Amino acid sequence: MPEPVSILGVALGSALGAMARHGLSQWVARHLGEGFPWGTWVVNLSGAFALGLLAGVMHDGGGWLSAWLIYGFLGSYTTVSTFSLQTLALARDGHLFRAGSNVLGTAIACTLAAGLGVWLGGGLWTG
């Protein structure tokens, strides 16, 4: 059974992550337009990088900090459901190239961002 501190950490992190996701996504959409889901793209990319960085830094698992940051904040901050719905909307509206670009671009860019984060995070503890 999870410790109460971990449960509270996940709850607090989730609330803050959702607010951060909404705020950043809306800000990006206002500045880059809504013809492509740039807001969700930036959120998922920055979240993948942050998760990779934390994974590289938290060699011991992180304890309550891991619960708060990784499972709570970043779990709520990044969003596969919004990504999926926006991709389907692009396809429904006949923007098949944009829909495919969103799927492929997100998968590649987020994987690279997570890898960069792990590499940088691991680099913080070496030498």
TrEMBL record:
One GO term of the biological process aspect: cellular detoxification of fluoride
Keywords: Cell inner membrane, Cell membrane, Ion channel, Ion transport, Membrane, Metal-binding, Sodium, Transmembrane, Transmembrane helix, Transport
Keyword Zinc: no
Positions contributing to Na(+) binding: 75, 78
CC per GO annotation: plasma membrane
Catalytic activity: fluoride(in) = fluoride(out)
Transmembrane residue ranges: 36-56, 68-91, 103-125
Annotated GO MF terms: fluoride channel activity; metal ion binding
Family, per entry: Belongs to the fluoride channel Fluc/FEX (TC 1.A.43) family.
Protein name (database record): Fluoride-specific ion channel FluC
Organism in which the protein naturally occurs: Thioalkalivibrio sulfidiphilus (strain HL-EbGR7)
Lineage: Bacteria, Pseudomonadati, Pseudomonadota, Gammaproteobacteria, Chromatiales
